[in-house]
Structure formats: C-alpha cells, structure tokens
Request: fold
Amino acid sequence: MKKLALLILCTLLIGVHFANAQTKNISGTVTSAEDGTSIPGVSVLVKGTTIGTITNIDGHYELQAPADAEILTFSFVGLKTIDVPIKGAVVNVSMESDVLGLDEVVVVAYGTAKREAITGAISSVDAKDIETRNLSSAASVLEGKSPGVQVNNTYGEPGNDPEIRIRGFTSVNGSNAPLYVVDGVAYTGRISDLNPQDIESMTVLKDAASAALYGNRASNGVIIITTKKGKSGNLNINGSANYGTFSRGIKEFDRMAPNEWMETMWTGYKNFAVSSLDYNEVDAAAYSSENVVADVIKRNIYNKANNALYDSNGKLVSGAQVLSGYNDLDWSKYLERTGTRQEYNFSADASTEKYNFYTSLGYLNEEGYTITSNIERFTGRMNANYTPNKWFKSGINLSATTASSNYADNATGTYYINPFNASRHMAPVYPVYLHNEDGSYQLDANGNPQYDLTSTYLSNRHIVYELENDMNRNYRSNLKTQAFVTISFLKDFDFTLRGDKSVVNSKYKNYNNPEVGDGAGSNGRLYNEYYLYDTFTLQQQLYWRKSFSAHNIDVLAGHENYDYKYAYNYTANTGIKVKGIIENSNFSNMTSMDGYNVTYKTESYLGRVRYNYDEKYFVDASIRRDGSSRFDSSSRWGNFYSAGASWSISKENFMKQLTWVNNMRFRASYGEVGNDAGAGNYGYMALYYINQNGNEGAYYRNNLENKDLKWETTTTLDIALEGRLFNRMNFSIDYFDKRSKDLLFDVVLPLSNGATSDKADGATITRNIGTLSNKGLELAFDVDVINKGDLTWNIGADATFLKNKLIKLPDHEDILNGNYKYSEGKSIYEFWLYKFAGVDQMNGDALLLIDDEKYYVESTNPEEERTAIDADWVREVNGNYYTINTTYAKRDWSGSALPDVYGSVNTGLTYKNFTFSALVTYSIGGKLYDSSYRNLMSVSSSGANAIHKDLANAWSAVPAGVTETSANRIDPNGIPRVDMYYSTYFNDMSDRWLHDASYLVIKNINVSYNLPKKYVQKMDISALSVRLGVENLATFTAIQGLNPQYNFSGGSDRTFVTARVFSLGVDIKL
Amino acid sequence: MKIKMKNYFKYFIGFLAFAAMMQSCTDNYLDTTPTSSASTSTVFSTVELAEGAINGINKLMVKQFGDDYGQGFNGEGTIKLYYGEYPGNNFSKPYMTGWSVIFNQEYHEQTSSRYNNYPWHYYYRLISNANMIIENIDAAEGTETRKQFVKAQALTFRAHSYTMLIQLYAQRWKDTQGETPGVVLRLSSDSEDLPLSTSKQVYEQIYKDLDDAIALYKASGESRNNGYDPDINVAYAIYARAALSREDYATALSNAKLAREGFDLMSNSDYVNSGFADPTSEWIWYSYGASDETLYYYSYQAYISYSANSSAGRTYRSCISKELLDKIPATDMRKDLFIHPGLWADQDPNTPEYDNDYFSQNWDVTNPSNVNQSYDIVVNTTFANEIRDYIAANFPYEHSANGYVYLYEHCKIGSFDAPGVGNTVHIRTSEMYLIEAECYYRLSQEENAQTALVELNADSGRDPNYTCTKTGEDLFEEIVTYRGLELWGEGFDWFDYKRWGKSIERKSIANGGNFHTNMAKTIGPSEFNAWTWKIPLAESDYNSEVN
Reply:
C-alpha cells in the first residue's frame, strides 16, 4: 500500500516536472464574427488532449499547451466549433454562429446527441425562437416550426395550451396528443404552467426510432422540453418587459341587420302557415303579418304595432323603422373587448467548472377578449448543477407556478351563458337594456341604463348580467421538484438516479348568482371542485461509453417507474346567505358532494446501444419493456424496439470534390412504440358507477369488461436525406410510413345492449381492433438569399403531405362514428353524410337522395324486403324520387377532414441592428362541417335567432325559364325556401354544410432593434433591444367566420377563436 | 490510501445504484382500483350490495341525462312529459309554440333525433342493468329469500321497460294483433346482434317475467324497504298495464285488483296537500326526490310543477284542455286544481247571482286587455294577482312569483324545493280502478265498470255527487274523460289514445278550446307512422339484424 502511494507521488512529480519542461504559453481573445464583441465562456481545448480552459469575461484566455501541440479547438453552444492551428503565442479567433446546425447537440430521449448522429426524425426549436414570441404556452411556438407537426393554436382563451398532432393520427380512440417530457421525465401538467422564457430547447421526436425509449406513451410523438442552465462564465442578468393588446383574431359570420332579418322571419312564418296549417298563400301571409312578432319574435323594437309592420308581401311597411333609442342590439359589443397583455421576466444565471445555476421569475397578466376571461400567472424557477469532482455530478430543478384565471365554463355549444353562442346567434332585434315605449333607455334611479332581465324571449336570463355576476374561477399551483445524481465508476461507467415529484393543485369555483340564470331557481349556487394531481417518477440509468480507434460505442440500460394519481372532491351548495361572500359557509343547503381518486402507473425496462465508426457511419438500436395499470395483469406488458442507421455521405472521400455540397447525410430507421391512452384508467374492468338514491347506495353499469385489452402499437419507417448546399441552402426530405395496429377503440354496440354513458349511442366497449396507417412526405428548406456584411436575408418553407388510411377493420366491416365512418382504405376523419341533391326550383324544397337499399317508393318486386316511404316525405322530379327527411336519405362518402398538404413559410431579415421575421402557416384541402353556419341558415318557430346573410338568396319564387320538366329544375347549390315548419328537414345534417377547410394564417411578425454597443456600454449594460411583434395578424378562409383550426376532425363550435396579440417589448442584459 | 478509499466508496455507490436499478417494483405495483366505480364482482359479492344495483335502477329512473340529451331528460319523468303528455289530447303548454313538432308527433320518423332515441336509450339501460342482476344474483352471498326478492325486482324492472318500449316503438295491438315487428328482446348481457321480435313475443316475455317475479316475491316472503323500490304490487300493476295495452282484459282486470291491495285511495286533503310531491296512501310505486338529490333544472317537476322555479316552469305553464275540464261537474274537487272561471263564479248556475258574479263582471277573458288571446296568458295584473292569491290560499306550495299566469293552468303537481324537487309517482290506486272500469267495459260487464268509476270518483269523496248510469259508447267516453282528468300530467295521455286508436282533437282558442293554433290539430290514428316511433339509428346503424 505504501509502495503504491509512493509510486503515485513519483508519477505526479515527474509529470509536473515534465509539464514544466515541455509547455508553451498561448493566449488570445475570442470575438464574435457577427459584431466583433468578445465572447466569454468559450471552451478552448488543445486538440487530442484534455488540456484546456475557458475564456474570461473579456473573451480572453491563457493556457499552457504541450510544446508539440498544433491545434486549438474552440467551442461554444450556438457557435460553430472551429480548429485553429497554433502559429505563435497569440491565437485570436473570430467565431461564427452555427447556422448549419448539423454539429449542434440536441436533446434526445435519455440524453443528448449530435445532430448528425441521430438516426430518427427530430426537429427542435431553441430559446431564440421562443423568446421573441408573445405566447403564454411554449407549445404554441411549434406551429410552423417543424414539418409534420400540426398545431391548433386557436382556442384564444388566456392560458390555454394548443392541440398538437405529430405526423397524423395514430389512434382512433381519444388521445392523439404527443407525450411531453420536461427535463427528462414525462410531464402531465399544462405546458402553460411553464414560463416559455425558461425554456432552453424543445425537441420534437417524430418517429418511432427516436421516441422508442419513451415507448409506452410515444406513439403520438414526443416533445422534449429542456429548461435553461447557467452557461457562461460570468453572471448574466436578463430583464424583459412586454406590453400589448389581446383581441379577437377571426371575424364573425356575416349576419342580417334588423330590417332584412324581420322580413326573413315573416317569410319563414308565412311558409310555416302554408306547410303546417294548410293555409293558402294569401291567408298565410295575413297570418304571418298578424302573428309572427307575437308568436316567434316576441319583441318589437319598431315604431309600428306588432300586426302593422308588414305589407301583404311581407315587406316592412314604408315608415317602419327601428326606434331611435335601440343602439344596444349588438351583443358582441357588451361581451367582447380588447384586453391587455403584460409580461415581465427576470433571470440570472452563471456557470463555473464546479457548478452552474439558472434562476428566474416571471409574471404574466393576460386579459382575454371576452369580458371576464383573464389569467394572472407567477412563475419561478431554480436550476442548479454541481460537479465537485470528476466522478460525481448532481443537480436540482425546482419550479413553481401559481395562476388564477377567470375562465368561460360554458364557452361551448348552445349553453345559455356561452358568450360566443350569444353574440353569434342572438336575434338582431333583442336589446341589451330595458327601453321605454319610445325606444329610449329606461333609466334607474341613478340615471343608468338597466339590463333587460325579465324578458321571456331571453328566458328571463341575461348573459351580460350573468357573466358580470357569476364566477368561474380557477386557482392553480404547480410545484415541480427534480433531483439527479450521476456517479462515474470503473472506467467508462456512469450511473444516474433521477427522481421527479410534481404536485398540481387546481380548484375550480363556479358560482351562479341568485337573481338571474342557473342560480336563480335555487337562490344562488356554488360548486367547488378540487383536483390534486400527484406525479412521481423514478429513473435508474446505467451508461457505458467507450471509444477505441475510430469506433465509438455507448450503451444505456435503465429502469423507470411512473405513478400518476389525482384526487377529486366536489361540493355543491345552494341558497346564498350574505350577498357577495362566495364561500361554502355562506350557503344554506348542501345539494351534492362527490369525491374519488384515480391512479395510473407504468413500469419500464429499457436499453439502448449506439455505435459509430469514425463519426461517419452511425447505427443505434433500442428495446423497451413496458407495463401499464390500464390493462389486466394477463395482458399488461408490451415489448417495443427500434433500430436506425445514419450515413454522413459528405464525409466520404469521393464527395470531397463536390465542393458545393457542404454537408449531406442519409438516414433510415424503423421502430415500434406503444400507446395506452385510448384505454381509460380502468377501461378493462366491468364497472358500476357509485351513485345514491334515497340516501342509499345506487350502482349502475358504466363500463363493460374486456380483459384482453392490450397495448396499441405504432411502427414507423423513416427515411430521410438532409444537408447543406452552396453554403447557403439547408434542405431535408423525409419520408415516413407510420402504422398503428391493435387500435384501442370504443366500439359502439347496438343501443339495446344498454348504454354505459349518457351518450345517444352510449353502448360501447373498448376493444383492440384494426390497423391505421399514416404515410407522408416532409419537405423543408431554407436559403440565405442575401448574406453579405450588414445584410442577411433568409427564406424558408416546409410542406407536409400526409395520407391517413385505415388498413384493417374487424371482419373488414365499416364502423359508423357520428358524421364519420371508418372504412378500410379511408382516413379516420372521412365524412359519411346524407347526400344533398339540391333545391327544387319549383317550390324551394331541399331534396336528398333516397337510401334505396333500405327504402323504396314504387316497388317492382312483390317480395320487397325494403320498406316503403310514406308519401309525405317523397318528392318527384322528372321521374326521379327524392326525400326531404334524412331518415330515408342516403348517406355516402363526402370527403375527408384532413388536408392534402400543410406547412409554413418563414423569412428573416437582418440589417445592421434591425431584424425582421415573419411566419405564415397554411393548410390546403380537407373539409369542415360547419354546424354554426347551419344554424345561421335555419329559422325556427321555437325561438328567434340571428340569420346569415346568405339566406337572402334562399328560394322565393320559380326562376324565369324553369318549368316542371326543366333539366335544371334541381339547383345543386340552391338554398331551400325559408320555412319554419320544414326548416329542421330542409337544413338537417347533410354534405351541404361542408366547407373547404383550407386556410392561410399570418402567424407572427416580429421587428426588433438592438441598440448599438457604443450606446449600450455608455449605459453600463451589455445589451438592450426593443421588439415589436404581432401574433395571428390575419386568417384567410373559404367563408368569413369559419375557424379552420378548431379541431383536426373538421368540426366547429361556438367558442374562443384565435387571439390576435400585439406586443411591444424591451430586453435588457446587464 | 485516501484515493483507494474513494474508489471503494465509488464501487459501493455503484453497487447500491445497480441494486436500486435491478430491484423492480413489487408485483402488484401496477394493480390499481377505481374509487368512483365498483367492479361487477364487488357489486354481486353480497345480496346487500346487489340491492344497491336495484337502487341503481331506481336512480336511473330519476337522474340527469347529460351529454347528448341535456336539460329536461331525467328518466321516467321525461317519458311522462315528452312522450305521454306533450303529444296527447289533454295537455297544453300554450306559449311553447316552438315545441309544436313534439306536440304534433312529427318526430316519429326522425331516427337521428334525440327524441326518437331517448326512450330506447333509457329503457334498454334499465334492461341491461336488470339483466346483469338476473344473471349474477344467484352467486351472491346472502339468504336465498333475499336473493329471490332482488331477482324478482330485476324482473319487474325488465317487464316495465319492455311494456313501455313496446307501446312506443311498435304498432298498436288493435291494428296488428302483435304480428308486426316490435323491439329487440335482449335478455342477457351477451352483445350479439339480435333482430326485432314481434310484439306478441315481447308481450309473452313480459308476462313470463312477471309470472316469474310474482312467484319469486311470494316464495321469498320478503318485503321492500322503501316505496320507491319495486315489489309484488308493482309487478301486478305492470302486469295490468301490459295486459291492457295487449287488449287482454281479463288478465289486466285481475292484476289491477291485486295491485291495489293495501293501497287505499287517498283523501281529498292528501290529494291537494301532498302536491303529488310526497307519497300518499295510494302511491304503489314512485321515484325518490329530495333537496340533497336534486336534479336542478333537469327534473320532471322543473317542467311541470306549478311551483317550479325554472323558466320552463314559469314561462311555459302546464295547462289542462279546456274541453276536458268543461266536462267535469263543479262538484268535483279535482276541477278546482285547475284555474277556470268557475272558481270565481257562484257555483249554482240557476241562481240570479250567477250572471252577475265577480268573475264574469270583472274578468272578461275575451277582453284582450285581460288575457293574451293567443296563449291564455293573464295579462291583467290585478287578475293575475287574484289567481296567485287563490293558489296561495288553497295549495301547499307557492306559485312561483315571476313568469306568467295562465288560464287552465294546474295546481296539481307541486315541488317542495326549488327549482323543482319532489317525489315522482308512477303507479297509483286510482289508475287501477280506471283499468278495472275499462276492462269491465271491454268484457261487457258494464255495471261493474260503473261501480269502479263510482268507487273512484264518489266513494273517494272526490265528487260525492258522482253517479254513473252510462252504457255502451257513452260509458267508454266516461272512462276516457275520468282517466284524462284523474291521470292528467302523469304521462298516460298519448299512450291511452294510441291504445284506443282514438284521434287527438285539440281545438284552438278561436274554436272554443285552449290550444295555440300551431298545436290545435286533429291527428288521426294512422298518421305519423301510425303513432309508432321508428327504431333509432343508434340501434339500426350498429345492429346487423335490424334494418
């Protein structure tokens, strides 16, 4: 033992001596090629050794290199690594930013990799892309930033996360959403709980090979988010302030003004009298003139009596006009606003050899564009890493977010207090305020106008009053803690233990006031909902790395378990005591309470091998075994794997002569990943819902058993070529074939099997059925159009062509799914709708094709198995039969909701200290079923609603030249007559309501100006920039009012549309 | 030395780490259990828990049906209103013109409509839950007698559900003698596709289920704990109903008599003061309602109760047909449950005061400034307050202050808490007497029919002056009238008219009735698919055996 110690001491001494004798001093300064400023923190390494240093705050370095040292390697994140020959004692270097990106180190599953070593399809955005955007959810940044990634970022409620689909749709049942991984562990919170300014990078793993290590939930792709670390030698302090406006980004549908509307209503009721009461035209006209206001409209804001408004043709009589006081008919004025958006951030970071840290504070206050919506969010973060010596490394990440928001609980469908339903569909003759007979406001004692709270046509309700006096508030806190320790042992081994615990508390407080609305019937009511989410992840990873001659290999073995649970508690109270106190104690009756918890767990074993030869040929393979609590113990475990290869062609000798090829590589991968998201937490069990009746337990079925339920698996083949040409153009071409089998699917059984939910077709059972494919091509390029001195201009574009197709269904039988049908060879969002034939120009009837497989009009076959249609529903035109009732109508394929191609175009321009960037996203093809438009085109005797201007073109008389026998008697693009009796038939579901879903969105424009160094230095700061940005400047669609990005399946709703955000910001670095 | 120590330390940590990695979680780490639901095996582990599954069906009869249905869909109460009353002959919500398609039976062939779909959804949900109990109860732990009782209850639910389904989705017995397609007979939890059975087969199954249920009830010797649970009387009553609609009058007669044993007709005081919200002596079966199990605006009472504090209750009040009420003598206490001129009139038309009374002098209902002529809404505030005062003085619950006051609105069905909370009655003794009267009439025992009517109307005290000597068609019309009056609002109207093959004839206000023009229709028995709801798309789209 003593001997050994001596030996070591000797060696050390000799070494020192040796070093003293054989070194040379080298020093120099590293500056930026862009602006000539010095760069601190650059790593300087004598090539082929471990001797090195980093530059100090002035960008200066000094080191002692071996006498025979020839080359110094300079590297820094975001800059191109360069090798500089040592020619003398001073080596000054100017470093360029890394536009190429191929050398860049990217975060991948369970580690990092050089981009060129990656065999799968990934794309990433970094802090720079995020920092310039005024978005509350970082996930929104991905829109238009990565081919193959679809982002629906149009739910313009403050604090909302976008919906994202990566390379199509792999699952039929429920979730197609990607998995988020934050700092190495699966993340189940909201992305908007993260401060975007804290994010260093986001990497999208698009194919199975790159995502395989997240096998159990990776089939929809993975988005890896990595938060910032301290990275430069000196202390960095950043501050930024943003101030802007938040407003509605898409216009409303074009609707009729009062006069035109009144006349359309008259026509509708006149035709009702003909159709339903069998009146002749003259009597019907008189009936409508006499009754339409009293029976249907139920409010008269005109200067004539109810029955003195119309002439015999249904036109308003001359002199009839809206009384002058009615300037409160546009409800959107009272429901929408332009909100303000403020965001302030502060961060500090530093890095030394032994530790680094990043800390930040953020504040966001965003007012929505509806009168009550807003969010106020505080975020804080501390990331610290410690490396006290060579064999030990550890780190801690702490982040905390609290947010309180007023949200719109009912901003969907036809809920009375859905502001979007109200402002879109409110009849244009209903005023917000009470009026006197003469039209003037009926003022209260203080001289203020009063809301109209007692109108029966508004069902004694008033949305503005209710929004102002009710409450939908969410209080949310998200606390996330993570720690890891890495021990290096033996020669090439690392062991990492990582634990992550995250707790989210979310409380919803919903209050309805006792005066008007849902709370009026029970003297005010209050619901409190409490969610406590608790997620724990534990990972153990063992790495082995080895390089010998040109062979580089690394191996990972790991184990992970994931435990997610949430507890839910609910109370409902009625009968408020003291007005204004909205707490449980202030209500007299408890009407309901509920509480339960849900647990979901997974456990995984994983392994990966990566090998490369001379950084030219790369291969990797991984395997993973996963268990999920969502399946019965007999079918719980699934095995997933992947393999990939990448070839850096440009490094081959035979490519050297092609000097215009700066970089080129080819890669291919294949892999299989799993998905259990479609299964529901207890989806395999036969379940009874626990309710109560008469204060005793009452149980009824709410899930059917399927013990065979197992993992849905997705395999992806990915082939790509990418590179850089002429030193100014980057390109990538990527082909993928993604196939999902054993799809988890809620199979609808005949309803007579007994529903397990309140859905109209609620008899369902979850099964693994069918195979689904997504094939596609992703193209992307960008080119430096100008790159000289002060001026650079870059243009880029990408396009994704995607084909989604069901390959196999059980027994090859089609499966109906609402307005869609699943069928082999078709996509999963293929419309299957009643076929609208057109409008009969003789009478304005809406005609549908007859389902002649089930029904007949005139039988030729005495053994007819079909059913006869009652003559009431049949129309004959030129010897052909049609029906006006969807019950007897034929359904057929009507097109897909999925676009043919989608993508983005972006450009960036830098001139001296100015930068300009713009992003446009587009989608071409696909259809959208527009139920709002359908409603606006219908008139009903059950209530008066707004009417679309297009209804002015409805059939009203036989057009000139058309006769009974005209070949063009049916107008396929016609609008049926306005008839309150037949409206439900004429405007029933059919392919008539499909619109082209193509769109173009000017997503983002940014202009910024960096104050020149000389001024900045005078101010004793290191940088100052001013930025002006706008999100969602304009959206272009087939018809005004359409929200083309509402969802991926071509649906629509009366809800938040995209928000337009203007913002002015200042960033300061100390 | 120190260096060496460090290495050991590293190996030690490395070993620990490796051990930590290799140690997988325990075998049952991935076993999780739900807490808002219970597994089938738990529910059928003991008979006590299985009784909770019976109570679960009770709950399905009175719960909010959200998702695709929404407000107004509450189980059995929805069947009563939307399917029994709205499209019938005697019920009116004059102001609710937008619902004329439902009142006028125009959705029978709208197979994608939720109105077409709902009874199918609802009753098959009861049936599937009953089937599970029938299949699994024998293996549960518990006494044999209790298991027999639970199984009998499940069979009772199944029979009730099929009785209702067959009346809605199949053609009337009178026209077809049960030979045409009825509904899907689903008697187990197997999910195979099944064709429609004929009505006859369905009635046979109903009879069989009830025979089995009655035998099991008797064998068990057990009795129910709550009036909202089914028991042997409920089974008899459903038997009587099923047999009545199958025109098997002898069976209906005997079962109706058995059903009402132990359930005497309620007193006049209970008739008014229970407000049909609390059980009385004649409630054979009902659904539970209470403030702490409120359905809010979804409930039957929120739509029909005279004290409902919901806009559906306040704005669109439920009224009786004026024509029907006019047939009822002033001596009948039931007439005073409805707002009509006689309430303010001298009750004796032969006195001179009659022509000069308070009502006819001051409250001329033909005067537009008193009453809105399209809807019978009282617009004269003093008159409206007069009516409110009458209600306040004579009935247990408050006429909700906001909203309208209507002529011919009722004060029969109330709710003891806002917006509309109350128990909902399904079977009463009164109905059994009416079944008996009808069966006696059909079996040509007219005297017995008259006696049944007298027992119901006079002996009960409801109209002490009531006598009945009518025969033939007049006697039948008498039964029709009193069935209409006694069971008004309770969901029988449309079912009765369908069974009888009688036309619905509603008169407009202008023609002496009190229906709005849009609902003042005559609907013949063969119209609108012969009053037969077509099989919903949610069945035919997914069942290869059903077209």
